[in-house]
Amino acid sequence: MGCDIHTYIEVYRRGRWVTVFGPRYKSARRSRRDDNDTAVTRGSPEGVRRDYFIPPSVPYTDQYKAPWDHPLYLRRNYGMFSILAGVRNAIDCEPIAHPRGLPEDASYNVRKEDKVWEHDGHTHSWFTLDELEAFNWDAVAWYEEERTGAGGPWKPGEFSAERQAFMVTSGKIGVNVGPGRLALVKALNEAAPDDPTVVKLTLTHWHMARTQVTYKEGARLHDEFLPALRKLAPNGDASKVRFVFWFDN
Fold first, then answer.
1. CA atoms in the 13 A half-sphere facing the CB of 147
2. How far is Cα 21 from Cα 16, in angstroms, rounded to an integer?
3. Which residues are CB-contacts of 93 (< 8 A; sequence separation ≥ 6)?
4. Residue 7 to residue 74: CA distance in whole angstroms
5. N or C: which end of the chain has fewer CB within 10 A?
6. Is the distance from CB of 208 to CB of 164 less than 8 angstroms?
7. What residue spans define the domains of the chain?
């Protein structure tokens, strides 16, 4: 099952944190339908979620003006999830900080949304903008291995098992295999050399190169998200902008 992030942006004003990007809740005494008469599918008993807060200083970049087209809306990116909170961290990346839970002074709308998601939401955390700006985004987050060149069909004794990837192909179908399965491929090819009903498998190898991925490259927050956050800082004070988030599966 896939995992997604829920993003809420708060700004500190007049002694409290307020939501500037995220769900807007209205009184439960109001109709349980929004202004376009669209049924609300989620809402706590004390309030109904009717639309989204969109900060005027960060306009839409898309003509359709849906929350998921806004620069502050974060889409599924497991590299980013690993960096922010260690979620879906198959790459074994050290996160910026381990999950902190919800802020004790979270804004009203964030607390309402947390109640709505209840046990379906997990790994709650947050960062202030000044923390994100102080982080060393140029540090190495993880390493990746890439194919750097394809060799010809494999012949016994021509390959080295170390730092190579192998592909077994039959027509247009390819399957990645590790060195441990090479004996099986060879056995299949030699089992019935003259039988035309047995599919012959060809093994092609690629040499692999190890490359490093920085936190900036992995998270991909610097193109739109962080610049949008900076526009929200009151009088340029990055400590008064807070990014609150959690995940669902």
1. 10
2. 15
3. 79, 82, 83, 86, 141, 142, 218
4. 7
5. N
6. yes
7. 4-137+222-248, 143-212
Q: What is the pTM of this model?
A: 0.67
The single-letter DSSP state of residue 200 is P
Residue ranges of E strands in the chain? 4-13, 16-27, 47-53, 121-128, 140-153, 164-170, 173-177, 202-214, 241-248
What is the DSSP secondary structure assignment for residue 58, as one 8-state letter?
S
Q: Are 37 and 144 in contact (CB under 8 A)?
A: no
For residue range 42-92, what is the model confidence (pLDDT) as tens digits? 433 345 555 778 887 787 666 556 777 788 989 999 999 999 999 998 888
Are 80 and 220 contacting, i.e. CB atoms less than 8 angstroms apart?
A: yes
Cα–Cα dist 190/172, whole Å: 21
SS3 69: helix
Q: By the 8 A CB rule, do 89 and 82 touch?
A: yes
* pLDDT value at residue 172: 38
CA distances from 78 to 8, 129, 143 (A): 18, 21, 15
Closest CA to 47 of 72, 19, 69, 7: 19
Instruction: Give residue 126's Cα distance to chain centre.
Output: 15
